[in-house]
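Quick log. Single chain, no ligands specified.
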Amino acid sequence: MEDPEQRLVFSGVDARTDATLPAWYERARPEAEPISFAEAVRRLPRATETTVAYRNPYTDEWVSTERFSAIVEPSRLQEQAADRRRSTDGGTASDTATAADGPSDPLFHVPTSSYAIINPLDVYGPLEDVLRETEYEGRSLDELVFGEMRQYRGGGEVHMDLMFDGLNVTLPGDRDPITMGLTSGYDFFGNHAVYVEGFARDTACANSIRSLTDRETIKHVGDIGGFDDWWRDLLRQLGMLRGDLAAFIEDAQDITLDLTVVPFDLETFYDLLDFPEYLATQAATDVRANAADPFEPNMWTLHSGATYALTHAFTGKEGSSLDRYVRTANDILFNPESILESVQQTYEQRVAATTDEDGQTDVERQAALAQIERVADDLTAQVSQFEARAERLRSRFEEPT
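-> predicted structure:
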């Protein structure tokens, strides 16, 4: 994944909290100097409105308008003004950045419609209080919270992972647990509303399991209400989400893909799911290293291979370009029947594309199609219980209790 311009690692809700990063997370982020969640929120750039003007090329005058407002970072406006004063006074001005220069540019966006600014403290300040009042197994969540905030485009786009040490899914065997949490974020460019969705981190391999639930959003439009109850509902559902994820993993470990009876290998399996070659290779390598039987991996191992590739090898940008692959990876775990249907359809399309001039498909390829169809039919009988549970998990954050 593309490196953020700035990464803030946090542990505990504020400086009074007796909290440290879990040992497994310290190993994943050895360079981190953690601060509190509250301090991290207050370090994020904020936005405010200012007047927009346009230049009349005939008079060379700037004309202000009240029809639109510019979304800008106020502290950068101050820095820009100070630079100008120093330059006017004969001093040496710092290299004041323009829009092309990136992080120091005060301008985030000029909305073309009604736009309500939601600053980080508006959203995550209420969460601080909710964490203090919410307990898990006798401990307040303000002691358990940790994670990181990632800034892009001068801090105008932010994504964060919030996890809770001890809120775990424990799998059978001598294996490190999966830690539950939330992913949240926003931007000031009109692309990402404030969002939150279920998230987990596999501590055994530091894989991020994203988009566990449908995305809950608050748009930058109209009268923005309080976030306290919103966060309470989400945290209340997180414990139940943990139970859903545990059940999915246990069932997925019993559903296997016998590679000896299908006409493709692991790399081709991921390629048929539209993973680029470099991600397919990384995923397949991880599966071979972790599968109890590399010739018959189960769906949990196939999902873990995909999340390993997306967490540790993906070179694209965080956001929509990553989300598409995340949805496919999650379907391996939550909807294996649809995955086999997708593989079958893509394979059939490729077979059709290689039909010879007489319109006759190679006999071996026809046999291969029959093999995939048999595997898909066998799988259908095993995954009927997934459908209702998958729907419940996806909508978990939409039905507060």
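The chain has three domains: 6-45+117-251, 48-109, 256-382.
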